[in-house]
C-alpha cells in the first residue's frame, strides 16, 4: 500500500464527525444563500486550490542557536516523500512537493516512481548555493562570499552549473519551474560593491535562464536580509522585478511573505506584480519579527486574507499568470506534518474568505469613496467561519474532517520513530 | 543691497577665525597628501556641489499635534526668498530654491526679479494636491479621497491642471523639473482598489508628462505612509520605478531619505536606480522613526555618507543623470535658517568624506572579498574630520567660516521679528 | 427629547432584521452548546463591557499635511456630546465620554446636566500640554520645548496647574481619573538631557498626584515618538512603569495600542503590567506604521483579540485593577460617528472571542507544551463569527442590530450638517 | 613566551609608523588645547577603558543557513585563549575573556594558569540553556520548550543547577558575575502562558541568585526575539528591570545593542537604567535588521557614540554601577581576531569622542533649549578623528599602532591554520 494512512482510518475518523459537519455546512450554506452565494460552488473552488509542500519542511527546523529534532525525523528524500503523502492523504490540499537540491538528490526515476506510488507530483525545484557542499565533487568552491554574484567567475560558474543540474533533475521528474534564492550580500558597508554585485548576479541568472527547457519558468525570490546583514543582492521586489524584466519571458518574481521590511504592505506588492505580469508565485508562511518562517496564518491571519483578496481581485489575469503556490516554513516546536497540514488549511481558509467577499458591493463602495462600507464589506468575508467549507472539501476528496486529530489517531509518528533512528548531533538548524 | 547679510559682516566674522582655519586646513592637507590626495582638488569639488533649499523650509514646521512658530516667520514667498538668500550668503551651498504651488504663487516676473536680486535661482517645482485649496477657483473639488488617483475623473483632471499650472509658473522662472508627491492612498483595507488606483495615477501622470516643456523632467516621489495609513499609491521605489518607466524618458525617481520602511538599505536603492538610469534626485533629511524630516545627518550621519558613497561610485553615469539635490525638512524646534545652513553643510560633509575614500583600494579589497579591509577603507573616509574643507569652500565663495555663528551675530532674526508680525493661530503644522 | 435618535427609529430598523438575528443566534448558540458554553452567559458578559469614547473623536481628524472636515462637525463640547449620545444610543457599548481640557472646557454643571439628559457619564479626563493655549490667561508660557519636563520651572508649574484644573473640572462632573500624555522629548541627540528631563517629569507628576482627590487614579501614557522625533520622555512601558511606581498607589500605566515600536508584542506588555498591578487602562485603536490612530480591529484584528485574551486570562486580578477602557482614534476619511460605533463593536468582538476560548483546554496544552493544540485552541476562539452575540447584546439594551445602517437611515448627519455651519480653514489636523 | 605575538614584532611594526602618529597626535593635541582639553588626560582615560572579549567570538559564527569556517579555527577553550591573547597583545583593550559553559568547560586550575600565562583575566560567566547537551550527564532533559521558564519543574531545576555549576567554575577562576540569557519563549500565540512563564522564570532566577557568592552579580539579558518568534520571556528592558528588582541587590540588567525593536532609542534605555541603579553591563555589537551581531560601530557609529555619551554623562553614578563591558558578536565573513581587535577599538573610539564633548557648553544649551547648539556641541565630539588617541593608548601599553596590519604581518593565522585541522561538518552556526 503506497501511503501509511489507510483509508479505513480516515473513514473511522470521519464517521462520528460527519453529522456535525453536515449541520454546520448546511447552516453556513443557508447564511451564504441569503447573500446569493452557493456554498457548493465555493467548496469546489477551494477544493481545486492546491499548495505545494517543501520537502525540507517535514524535518524539524531550527535557528542559529539550536535545533531540537523530534522523533521519527525523515532521513532522506524517500522518507520525506512518505511524510508528504501523509499530509496530502489527510488534508487533500498538497498534492505536490517542492524539492531542494542537493539535499534531495536521488535517481530521478526512483523519485518519480515513489511519488507516483504515493499520489504525489513535483512542483518547483529549489537550488542551494547558500551552503557549501564539500562532498559534492562538482561544488569544490566555497560560497562564503557569494554564489551567483561572487566576484570570482569560477564560483559563479559553479553556481550556474549547480542550478542547471537542478533543472535537469527537475525535468526528469516533471517539474516545470526553478526557484532561485541566494543568500548573497554583505555584512559590512563597503564589503561588496552594490552595483557590480547585481550585474554579476544578472549575468549568472541569464546563463541559467538560457539553459531552461522551453516550457519552464524561473522564479527570482527576494529577501531583505539574512544570512547577509548589511546588504542583500536581491533585497526587495523592486530588484526582483528588475531581474525578471532583464531575464525575459520565462522569469517571474516569487513573493515569500516573510522576506519584507517591517510594516510593508505585502498585498500591495502582490497587486503591483500582478499588473506587471511578473507575479510568479508564493512562499507562504507567517512572521512577526523577521523571516520567522512560522505556520501560515498564525501571526496575522488578516494579512494572509488580504493577499488572497488581491489574488481573487486579479481575476482572469491570475489565470494567465498561474502562480506557483508553495509553503516555506521552519517547524521548530511542532510536529512538521501537523504544521504543514494546518498551514495548507489556513491558506485555503484565506482563499475561501476572499472568495466570499461581495465584490460587486466592494467595488461600488470603493468607487464612491465610502471608506466605511468598503472596509466593512471586505471584513465581512474575513469574519466568516468557513471551516465547514474547508472540511467538506477535504471530506469529498477522501481526506479527514479533522486532519490533525486523524493524524494523531493514526499512530504514524510513533511508527516512524521506531523505524527511523535519531540522527546524532544537532547544531544550528538549516531551513 | 539685495540681501540682508552685508559682506562686511561676513568679513568681520571670518577675520578672527581665519588663522585657525588655515592651520587646520594645512594640517588636513598634509594628512591627505600622505595618501596622495590633493586637498584643494577636493575643496573645489565640494564647492561645486550645490543643494536646493525648499521655500517652505524657512517657516517653522509642525506635527499634527501642534506647530510652535518662531519669531520673524516669513509671511509669503518674497520674505521666504529673503531668508533663503541669507542661508546662501552665509553657507554658499544653496544657490537655488524649490517652490511649492499654490503656497508660493506670485507673478513670475516678480519672483524672477527678486531671486536675481538676491543671487538665487529656482530648482524643481512642487505641486500640491494633498490639501484642499478652497480659495482657489481652479481647485473647487476636494482631495480628501485622493488626487491624481481619485476615482472621480473630474478630481483627477483638476489635479492634472494644477500640476500643469505649476509647470507653467516654473517655466516662467527658469525651473526645469516638476516633483510630484501625492498623499493618495487609503486608511483601511478595502477602501481603495490597490490596482485600479495605480492605473488612474499612471493615467494622470501621463497627461502631466505630455504637458511638460521639452527640456523638463518629472520626478515621481514615493513614500511608505503618511498621510495615508494603510496603503499609499506610490509606496516604494519599485512602484516609483514602474511609474518612471511607464512615463518615458522625461520621468525619473526621486528619493526622499525619510520615506522608507524601517531598516531599509537606502544606499542600495540609490545604486539600483543609478543602474536603471532613473535616478532623478533627492530630498535630503534625516529620520529615526518615520518621515521625521529632521536635519540631514543628525540621526544617522553614516547613512548619509553611504548614500554619497554610491553617488561618487556612480562616476560618469551620475553626470549623465544629473540628479536634483534638494533639502526637504520640517524645522519644529530650531531656527529654520540655521537648520538649513547646517543641513547643507552636513550634506557637503558626506560628499567630501565620500570623495576621500581610497576607491582603488576599496575596489581591490571588494574584489578579493577582504571584508575587513574593504569596510575599514570605506570608514576611513567617514572618520576624517573634513570641516576645514567645508569651511574653506565657504570662505573662498564669500561665505562665513562658521555660518551659524555669523547668522546669530548678524541680528537678522531679531530684525525680521520686528518687521514680520506673528500670524495668529497655529494648529497642526503643514510641512 | 434628550437624544436625536428616537427609539421608534431603532425599532423600525430592527424589525426586519430580528428574525435573521434570532436564527443566527440560535445556530451559534447550538454550536457553543456542543462545547458546553451558554451563549446567553457570554452575551451578558459582552453587554456588561463598556468602552469610553473620546470627545475629540467625533470631529474629523487629520495629519500634519491636511485635515478634510466632513459635514456637520460639532462646534463645541455640547454638540460633541450630542454625537456621543447617538453613538451610544445605537451601539449601546459606549455610555461614557472622555473629555479633553481645555478643548472641552465649560461650566461643569452644564456638562453634567447635558450628559445626564443624554444618558451619558464621564470617564477619565485628559489634559493638554502639547499645544500652546495663547487665549488662556492661565497658560501664557509656551510648551514648544516641553511641559511637565521643561527645563524652566515656571513652565512646569503652569503645566502642573493645568492638570490640576483638569482634575477639578473632572471632579465636578464625576470623573475618577486623569490621563496624562505629554509630547515632551527632543528632535536631536543632545537637545535634551535624557536623564534630567525624566527627573523633572517625575517631579511635576508627583505634584499633580498630590493634588488628586482621594478616589482618583492617574494614568501615565507612554508613546515611542511623535511629536518628538529623536527621544520622548515617556517612550515605552518601562518608563511608564518606573513613573507609576515612583508616583505610588494612585498611579497606573495606560496602554495605547499605537504607541509601540514596530513588531512589539503588545499583549505581553499587558501581561507584564497585569502582574505588576499597574495596568491602568487602554487607548484602543489600530495601526500599521506608526500612531496611525485607525479604527480598532481594522489592521490586525488578531492582535486586538490577543490583548483581550490576556485580559480574560488575568481573571480576578483584572477585577482588582478595573482598567479604564477608552477609544483614541483619528477619523480622517470616515464619518466619526460611524467609526466609533464600529470600533466599539470590534472591541467587544475581540472580548467575546476571547471569552469563547476553551481556557481549560488551552492551559492543558500549554502545560504539556503541545504548541500545535494550544495555538489551535486559541485560534478557535478567534475564528468564531460572534456577530450574533454582539447584535443581541445591542438589541437587548435598546440599540440597533446594524447600528451603522440605522445611523445612515436616521438622517442625523444631514440634519446636523444643516445646523452646524462648516468652520472656515482647515490646516493640519489636531487629534 | 606565553603569547604568540612576540614583542619584537610589535616594535618592528610600530617603528615606521611612530613619526606620523606623533605628528597627528601633536596636531590633535593642539586642536584640543584650543578647547582647553588636555589630550594626554583623555588618552589616559581611554587607556584605562577595557572591554571583555567572548571566548566564542574567536570562532567563525554563522546563521541558521550555514557556517563557513575560516582557517585555524580554535578547537577548544585553550586555543581560544591563545587567540584572545593575540587580540589583547596587539590592541591592549581586551584584558579579560568571558567564558561560556559548557562550551568552555575545563579544569579551572588549568584555565587560570593558562590565562595568567597569557596575561588574561576572566570576566562574566555565561551559562547555556538554549541548546541541549546530550553528552552531559547532568543535563539529560531537553530545552526545546524552555529552560528556566519551562512548565516542567525538573527542567527548570536542571537549568538552575547548570547555572550554579557555571558560577562554581567562574568562582574558581576569578569571575565575579553571571550573565543569564535564555532563549525561552514561544512561536505561536497560545503556545505559552505569557504570565505564568515569567513567574516560573523569576522563581528559577531567584534560586540561582540565592546560590551566588557574596561578591557576585547576576545580569539579566533581554532580547526581543530569536530563537523564539512570537514571544520571548525576557523581551525588553522593562521585563529585565522587573526581574532585577525582584531578584534584589545582586541583580542588574545587561544591554545587548542588538536585542531591541526597530528604531528604539537605546541610549535612552541606558539613561533609564543608570537612574534606577540597575545598569549591569553591555554586550556590544552592531546591527541593521535584527540581532545581526556585526562588529561594533560598523552600521551606526553615531548610535554607539550616543550610548557612550550617556555613560560619560552618568558620571559618578557610573563608578558606583561599575558596568561590565563585553563584546558579543558573530564573525561570519571576517577573521574573528581582526573583528574583535577592530570592535574594541571602535568602542574606545566612541568613548574618546564622548569624553571630548564640551559638557559644560552642552548642559548650558540644553538648559536654554538651544536645540541647534546643543546638537552641534554633541556632534562636535563625534566629528573628531580620535584615531591618534586610540593609537597612542595602544602604543604606550605595548600594543600595535595599526593592530590589524600587525596581526597580518605576524603570520599567526597561517601558523595556527597549520596546527589546527579544520573540523569536519559545518551546519548552521551557533553563536
From TrEMBL, chains A, B, C, D:
EC number annotated for this UniProt entry: 5.3.1.-, 5.3.1.14
This protein's UniProt keywords: Isomerase, Manganese, Metal-binding
InterPro entries registered for this protein in UniProt: L-rhamnose_isomerase, L_rhamnose_iso, Xyl_isomerase-like_sf
GO molecular function: L-rhamnose isomerase activity; metal ion binding
SUPFAM superfamilies linked to this entry: Xylose isomerase-like
Gene3D superfamilies attached to this UniProt entry: Divalent-metal-dependent TIM barrel enzymes
NCBIfam families per the UniProt record, alphabetical: L_rham_iso_rhiz
Protein known as: L-rhamnose isomerase/sugar isomerase
UniProt source species: Aureimonas pseudogalii
Amino acid at each position: 500500500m503506497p501511503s501509511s494512512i489507510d483509508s479505513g482510518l480516515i473513514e473511522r475518523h470521519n464517521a462520528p464527525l460527519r453529522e456535525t459537519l453536515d449541520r454546520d455546512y448546511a447552516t453556513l450554506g443557508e447564511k451564504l444563500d441569503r447573500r446569493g452565494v452557493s456554498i457548493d460552488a465555493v467548496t469546489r473552488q477551494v477544493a481545486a486550490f492546491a499548495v505545494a509542500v517543501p520537502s525540507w519542511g517535514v524535518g524539524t527546523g531550527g535557528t542559529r542557536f539550536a535545533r531540537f529534532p523530534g522523533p521519527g525525523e525523515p532521513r532522506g528524500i524517500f522518507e520525506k516523500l512518505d511524510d508528504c503523502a501523509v499530509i496530502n492523504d489527510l488534508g487533500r490540499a498538497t498534492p505536490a512537493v517542492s524539492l531542494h537540491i542537493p539535499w534531495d538528490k536521488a535517481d530521478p526515476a526512483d523519485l518519480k516512481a515513489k511519488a507516483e506510488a504515493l499520489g504525489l507530483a513535483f512542483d518547483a525545484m529549489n537550488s542551494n548555493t547558500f551552503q557549501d557542499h564539500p562532498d559534492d565533487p562538482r561544488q569544490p568552491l566555497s560560497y562564503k562570499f557569494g554564489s551567483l554574484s561572487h566576484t570570482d567567475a569560477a564560483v559563479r560558474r559553479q553556481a550556474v552549473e549547480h542550478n542547471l543540474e537542478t533543472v535537469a533533475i527537475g525535468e526528469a521528474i516533471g517539474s516545470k519551474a526553478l526557484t532561485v534564492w541566494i543568500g548573497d550580500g554583505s555584512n559590512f558597508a563597503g564589503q561588496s560593491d552594490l552595483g557590480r554585485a547585481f550585474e554579476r548576479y544578472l549575468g549568472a541568472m541569464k546563463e541559467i535562464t538560457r539553459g531552461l527547457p522551453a516550457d519552464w519558468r524561473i522564479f527570482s525570490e527576494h529577501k531583505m536580509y539574512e544570512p547577509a546583514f548589511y546588504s542583500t543582492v536581491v533585497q526587495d521586489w523592486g530588484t526582483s522585478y528588475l531581474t525578471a524584466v532583464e531575464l525575459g519571458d520565462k522569469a517571474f518574481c516569487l513573493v515569500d511573505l516573510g522576506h519584507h521590511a517591517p510594516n510593508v504592505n505585502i498585498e500591495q506588492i502582490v497587486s503591483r506584480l500582478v499588473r506587471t505580469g511578473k507575479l510568479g508565485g508564493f512562499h507562504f508562511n507567517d512572521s512577526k519579527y523577521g523571516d520567522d518562517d512560522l505556520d501560515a496564518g498564525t501571526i496575522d491571519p488578516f494579512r494572509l486574507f488580504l493577499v488572497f483578496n488581491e489574488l481573487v481581485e486579479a481575476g482572469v489575469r491570475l489565470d494567465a499568470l498561474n502562480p506557483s503556490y508553495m509553503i516555506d516554513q521552519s517547524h521548530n516546536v511542532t510536529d512538521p506534518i501537523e504544521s504543514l497540514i494546518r498551514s495548507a488549511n489556513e491558506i485555503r481558509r484565506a482563499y475561501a474568505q476572499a472568495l466570499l467577499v461581495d465584490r460587486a458591493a466592494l467595488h461600488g463602495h470603493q468607487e464612491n469613496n465610502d471608506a466605511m462600507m468598503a472596509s466593512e464589506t471586505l471584513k465581512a468575508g474575513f469574519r466568516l467561519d468557513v471551516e465547514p467549507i474547508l472540511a467538506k472539501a477535504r471530506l469529498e476528496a477522501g481526506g479527514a474532517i479533522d486532519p490533525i486529530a486523524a493524524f494523531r489517531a493514526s499512530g504514524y509518528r510513533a511508527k516512524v520513530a521506531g523505524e527511523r533512528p535519531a540522527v546524532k548531533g544537532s547544531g544550528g538548524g538549516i531551513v
